[in-house]
Amino acid sequence: xxxxxxxxxxxxxxxxxxxxxxxxxxxxxxxxxxxxxxxxxxxxxxxxxxxxxxxxxxxxxxxxxxxxxxxxxxxxxxxxxxxxxxxxxxxxxxxxxxxxxxxxxxxxxxxxxxxxxxxxxxxxxxxxxxxx
Length: 132
Description:
The protein is mainly alpha-helical. It has one domain. The protein is 73% helix and 0% strand. It has helices at 3-27, 31-40, 45-62, 67-90, 95-114.
């Protein structure tokens, strides 16, 4: 196993745990999460929606195949985590609540970027052909 594969698997596992446990905490309506959602001004039912989406997204990125579904899951995680960061910043929460979602996003970005070619929808190419 080379360094890229190790980086992929480590970042995928860390990201999956972070988002999976976050989704479970959302579905269980953790008191800390409910307090945070109230402070942010979001309705209570949004926690359940986010919990279902996070669990579904984790399942999608762990399933073999399903390249397009994986892309949508990663995009959803991007929106969730950047939205969480901006939301906390807008209500004046401490720096940790603003930065932690971005750190998780970087870990997820590593798993997306380092994923094997079999998990890409289409392989990127460095060659660009121009016709005259």
